[in-house]
Design a protein that fits this description.
The protein has about 100 residues and is an all-beta fold. The chain is built from no helices and 8 strands.
Length: about 100
């Protein structure tokens, strides 16, 4: 993927969601309305972190290129260079995959 010109602020992370499955494990083909939104994706860009209310610096844990799992209803859908992506707060990322 080409380098993006979007730089998330504070604790936000820009994620490109994985493509939804088009078949079930048993081989049934799903139409678009039957597909669940993925909860995994690739980190495209990360913010610089932020200062917490008690003055501590909160650093970013995730890095560009990592695959992550995020909360089902977390994030804001955005289009970047014509591609659907999510802006998610780091606290809504539950795991690094791989």
């Amino acid at each position: 993927m080409a380098k993006t010109t979007v730089q998330p602020l504070f604790s936000y992370v820009l994620i490109k969601p994985s493509e939804p499955e088009s078949k079930t494990a048993s081989g049934i083909v799903l139409v678009d309305t039957g597909k669940e939104k993925p909860q995994m994706g690739e980190v495209i860009a990360v913010g610089t972190g932020f200062e917490s209310e008690d003055g501590r610096e909160e650093k970013m844990i995730v890095k560009v290129g990592q695959k992550v799992m995020y909360k089902k209803w977390g994030g804001n859908e955005v289009k970047v260079e014509g591609v659907d992506m999510l802006l998610v707060e780091q606290k809504d990322i539950m795991a690094i995959v791989g």
